[in-house]
Amino acid sequence: MNGRKDQHEHGTHGRTEPTLGDIDHLGAPAPSGPDDGLPKVTLDPERRRPSGSTASRTSRTPSGKRGWLWPLLLLVVIGLGVTLWLQQDRLRGLVPNTELNDVLGRAEQALQDGRLDGNDGSSARELFEAARALEPDNDRARDGLRKVGLAEVARADAALNAGQLDQAEQATNSARELLGGGSDVDRLAQAIAKARGASVETGALVDQAQQAMTDGKPEEAGNLYKRVLAADPGNAVAQHGLDKVGDALAAQARKAIESGDRAAAGVSVDRLAALLPNYGELPSLRAALVQDQKADNGELADALKQGQEALRAGRITDAGDDTALARFKAALAIDPDNADAKAGLGQVAQALIVQASAAMDGGDNAQAGKLLDQASQLAPKSADLVAARAHLADSAKRANTAPRNVSGEAPVAEEAPATLTPQQSTELARMIQRADTAARHGDIMLPPGESAYDLYRGALAIDGNNETARRGLQALPGLVTSQFNQALANGNLAQAGERLSDLGDLAPGDAGQAELRQRLAGAWMDQAEQQLARGDRANAAQALNRARKLAPDNPRLSVIAAHLQAGG
């Protein structure tokens, strides 16, 4: 028994079966012993136990000693699977994918050709999205969709600049979907919304312009059409509307020229030049206006000259055509806005006031009243006229309240001064004070009832001989002249024009107004040139019209008008 055991342990005589041995000793060094040239194996301890036969030992070995290999092999397989799963992207890149590459190539070509989006499967967006369906994490497909989004932004910008709001909005929406928003997408959305609002506004402006044409207001319609074209340069309705405006203004100018209304004709031509500097009939209209002006100027100059000669000769209002009144009225018939003719009528009124004062001094109040009535038709707001009427009314009142003399006649007015009640005296003082304040504040003719002019008149109605009220009223023309100069120096041309108009009412015969008109006209022409330099043609035309009314013969007018017609 021991011998068989030894023989089994050393493997020198009996049959043995090699095994891997105990897993705990796997990898341990083999036991030392003589090298007999045979493979060394390690016997399972269970094999050392006595057994009835070799076959019985062999039958127990596979089931009891080799089962531990299977878990080891399973772990190896699982490890290899995890490794392959983690490296799938790298491994996939090593394997050619013909279908994916073909889709990406076609997508990039569509992007290059500008076929950004569509429904037939051939657009860049559709193809890049198809590539992502094949491989969701593909970098080329992801970057391609980003490029399509940027191309949609560029397409939206181009459509917006061309006024194609629907196309611009469609491209912006696509860009938002592809890029997920962003500053460019927000900018486009805001610009489209603003453009749509402007489109609604231009539609309303077109309606207003058409209504203005129906109402016979072509200049107003022209300005509205210009606003439409500023917001929408390609608006065909506004362009056609401006052509109609040009025809209407040209017709107005021709009608004014034919009727001899040179001032109205000049205004229509200037408005036409401001709105449509390239209007075809504009040169011929200007030529006709100049020719008509030359003819009128000769007749106008003769009428003004004859009026001044009659005034110096004392032929004021007598019957016939050779009086100052008749000749100045003839001048106004030629040019209704002629300042020299208006000033001539003011001089006639002043002469009548002087004659009325002389009649009052002579006690002929009836004749004085007649003369003042004539003067009021020519210069109803003259300060001297108001003072003279107050003096006449006060003289009549004193004459009526004075006691009769032995012959039954009323004494001379100065012999019976009127007496004021305490209440009248208080009201008179208060009214004069308010008038002085209004004059200093520049409230000369307005507001009604509270102007210096009306308050001084009210004071004279209480006491027609009150020297303070009369001096205050007759000092208004000098005060207005000072305020005119101040407004002109400050560049407030509108206010200077108001003061000049006040002066024309208060002292219509004052010869110094001609120089004031020339100064104001020069300032308006300066402003017109400045506005033309800035491209503000509409306001330049208005400034030029104001200058023409003040100084129609100023040679600068034609120069500025030519610049206006030529576009500045």
Automatic annotation (TrEMBL):
Annotated transmembrane regions: 67-86
Chain positions covered by the region annotation Disordered: 1-64, 396-425
TPR repeats: from-to residues: 521-554
Keywords: Membrane, Repeat, TPR repeat, Transmembrane, Transmembrane helix
Basic and acidic residues bias spans: 1-16
Signal sequence extent: none
Family annotation (InterPro entries): CellSynth/LPSAsmb/PSIAsmb, TPR-like_helical_dom_sf, TPR_rpt
Organism superkingdom: Bacteria
Composition-biased stretches (Polar residues): 51-62
Protein name in UniProt: Tetratricopeptide repeat protein
